[in-house]
Amino acid sequence: MRQRESLQIAIDGPAGAGKSTVAKIVAQRLNLFYVDTGAMYRAIAYKALKNGASIEDELSVSQIAQSTEVVLDHSDEGIVWCDGENVTEAIRCPEISRAVSTVAAYPGVRERLVELQRLEGSRGGVVMDGRDIGTHVLPEADIKIFLTATPEERAKRRWAELSHAGKDISLEEVTRDMQRRDRMDTEREVSPLKPARDGIVLDTTGLSVEEIVAKIVALA
Length: 220
Ligand code: DC
What we know:
By secondary structure, the chain is of the alpha/beta class. It has a single domain (4-219), classed as Rossmann fold, CATH 3.40.50.300. It has helices at residues 19-30, 37-50, 58-67, 94-104, 107-121, 133-137, 151-164, 171-187, 209-219; strands at 8-12, 33-36, 70-72, 80-82, 85-86, 126-130, 143-148, 200-203. The radius of gyration is 16 Å and the shape is globular. The mean pLDDT is 93. The site of 2'-deoxycytidine-5'-monophosphate has 14 residues, from helix 2, helix 4 and helix 8.
């Protein structure tokens, strides 16, 4: 295992499994950078919609990905910059959540973002969360976690998060969107969502955030 300051922790799993909440706290406790790779895919979906591109137009969306600068700031606020615009809030809306799985299935988009993610990984110790971090982005990561929870619990968590942020959306709608996204993320051809062969699967159903964090910190 690498020294603490250059440790790489990969956290993958489906939407609503608790990845970002857990990854952020683990990064703080171990003094590592937190890299939210889902936010990068969301930023590309945001830019494509803003430019009036059709999300189904693979070539246009891939070209947008090649020419867009996505920067994650590593302060506690975790600001996401897309060509100099602060898109932190804008990328969390249901419209982007619906479009992002299509965007994330395009090889041209993934190539560009994986390159940026590896660059982030080479800058020092990181906790990186996503869908293909342990299997593809950082295959040499010291610790690979696959977080999961029952679909019901994941949908409830995501709905609570959105409601808390003032978004008017029903649990049924969140459940439907999530099922569709899970299917697209696990069935796509390039880097589908799956646990790494040498990863540790953690079912978070019924566990508190603190319990999950403690398990991962103990591994580190
Ligand atoms: O974690 P999230 O819900 O913000 O991710 C948004 C989308 O991006 C999700 O549909 C899966 C995709 N994604 C991916 O394909 N690979 C990653 N490393 C991270 C996210």
